[in-house]
Amino acid sequence: MEQSAEDRGQGSVLAEEARRSLRGYYWKNIIATLVSQIVVSVLDLSTPMNFITTHFSSLVQDGRPVFTLYGLQRSSPMMMIVLAPLVIIIYILLRPISKCLRLLRQGQEPSLQIVSKARQRLLNVPFLIIPTHMLLWITLPGFFFGYGYLTESIDSHSALVLWIRTAMVGLIATAFAFFSTETQARKTLIPLFFPQGRLVEIKGAARQLISRRIRAVYRLSGLVPMAVLVVTLITLALEVNRFGMETSTFALGVVRFSLVLFAIFFLYAGVLSRLVSRSIVEPLEDLLGVVEKVRRGDYESRVRVVSNDEIGALGDSTNTMIEGLAEREVIRSVFGRYVSPEIRDEILSGRIPLEGELREATVLFADLRDFTPLIESLPPKEAVKIINGYFQAMDGAIRRHHGLILHYIGDAILAVFGVPLPRADHPASASHAALEMCGELEKFNAMIALEGRKPLRHGIGLNTGLVLAANIGSHDRVTYSLVGDTVNVASRIQDLTKDFDYDILLSETTRQNLGQEFILKELPATRVKGKQNLLKLYALLG
Question: Would you list the domain boundaries of the chain?
Fold first, then answer.
């Protein structure tokens, strides 16, 4: 929830929305409690127990109103007694979250300690709701039924049975409260406190795995109603012997109770299953939607992580993957400015070894003639504009013939054909590129002539041979480079273009690999610096 100054206004709006969301915690828990109290009353009234039939056949005995334990349980004061501690406990549980939201609404930046405590509490509140409800559903009914037994309003057998059934219904109420509270948190609070996800990294936060959710639905939807039915049937069987209940009355009561129990828990199971399925399906649908956007090339989308279970961890991993893909796309885009797209894709795919390989290739070395005096006579911006314009024109010619520009060295260009992407016709590709470079230079000269600039001239040397191609450099910075005599000879041949007054010269090794489509002129064998033997050269004319 780290916010910059410009984000605080938006954070205040979100905090106000989240404050309204806090009210949902109270209402959902209150509704779960009230509905469950009604369910308990319906189940009790539909049970043909002696206590129920005796005490509720009439609400008046001997001309006086009957004030029984059950009447107390059905009254509004009873509901208030149950709800009051629930509301107080929820208020205490939400206090760290409320404190953080209050600071945000006031435009203040909460401290890291306050935010950390609020985040942890936000994830733990649904789990803290469980013991809260269970405590209320076990202790309060136990107190009232125990009070009824002590005041002889209810016999011990009936008090125990009704207390057990009330506690079992409390399990369902607790489950509703848990999943409703969790759903409430996922709507507004979790996106506010965890805009980047990473809920699994919060220490001290409870987790409920998907497998536990499924087991909870099974147990609450199947085992609880079965347990209620078994306890009730055992109770009724005992009361038949104790009070001599007629068989027809007993059978009718069992059927009525079974139908009521089925209807209630059928609805319970449907609502509970919906809550649980939504907690699983909705995050998965969001994840699939984001994956589909990424498949179409949208790397700005992110999965909305709202849980710390397996789906939340998967969402975090997916976001990390998307960030990696976005970085890769940036690399592809930037890398594509230095090499042709096909070479870029080969390198990024890992199909080209960058640790070093000895390969045959054709090296192209180009250098502008008499450019240093020109630079000294121009303002810096004009000089940079001209050199960049020249490089742009040469870059296009080299790329179109599958060449890779390795370095811009001052006003010179070092390019290679045949590595890293293997090509059998690399001498021909380099020769076509050199000819096109001369054509592009003529176009560039025509353009700068309109600005009153003198035309540029360059020399190009081509040489074919073995080169060592590898990532070369220090641990912190490397560059894809060529090492070998082939590179040095190409540079020397380029220097000789000044002596022979030809724009393009190539070596004998390059000529041997060219077809008949090129026009070549053989030049006198020449000694180059660093070589003992004379070097046969050819001028490339077309």
Answer: 5-283, 354-540
